[in-house]
DNA sequence: ATAATATATGCCGTTACAGGAATGTGTCAA
DNA sequence: TTGACACATTCCTGTAACGGCATATATTAT
């Protein structure tokens, strides 16, 4: 068989750095395509194509006014990604706060104090 | 240009559903490849290849014991993804806790209080 | 040394997909 | 209507991801 089916989910959408950049830009508020083109410094078709992908996945929505099309971020579509990654949170938080580690060391010290006086 | 390499960063690595499944499985503890093969139901080369990608990005580490190779999850490598997605958290939490909605209603009430006494 | 086991790797075919260039579509202005 | 503007879409090309299959490599067992 060939490649796996193109499951167009948010995970795939944000795998592309440029699409993440688009989302970051739109986090500041809705913008017409041309503003994005100027702000990001890419060609207009490139911007439009990435916007099309983001819209398909539901990460952005579009509102037309005259000949301009305003794209707006729909951050809620990132929740599945957030929820998935969050299930792994314990793998770095336990290292950062060090509470558990310190507590355990204390316990070890206390045990050695009592057993080896 | 082609697509970005999957071994480039965790974002690309977890874009593949099968690789996410591998990480979920390894969250329960380290496992040799054959156990993963049986548990996941894929061919051995497929499992090995995905493990190779995950290892390149640093999402898993490997320990050899005899002829078995135990793969262990390194969840910390997911932190960049978590941190990035977290910056968009307000886009769905504000709807859930209703902070924004309540604040806006308050503003409307105050406006109507002053303008329409 | 030979066989069996555990895993990695190389090759191949198919398909995805990013970017460039050109063109299509729809809307406003004169 | 004609032209300018804003944007989408199509065609093309190069690169590489995925999976299957076969094979290589390394370790243990006999």
Give a written overview of the molecule.
The structure is a homodimer of 117-residue chains. The first copy, chain A, is mainly alpha-helical and 117 residues long. The first copy, chain A, folds into two domains: 1-75, Orthogonal Bundle (Arc Repressor Mutant, subunit A); 87-117. Chain A is 59% helix and 12% strand. The first copy, chain A, contains seven helices and three strands, in the order ααβααββααα. Chain A has a three-stranded antiparallel beta sheet. In chain A, a hairpin with a 2-residue loop joins strand 2 and strand 3. The longest helix of chain A is centred in the last third of the chain and has 17 residues, at 99-115. The relative contact order of chain A is 0.12. Mean pLDDT of chain A is 83; it is low at 99-117. The interface between A and B is medium-sized, with 30 and 30 residues. Chain B binds a DNA duplex (30 and 30 nucleotides) through residues 1-6, 16, 18, 32-34, 42-52, 64, 66-69.
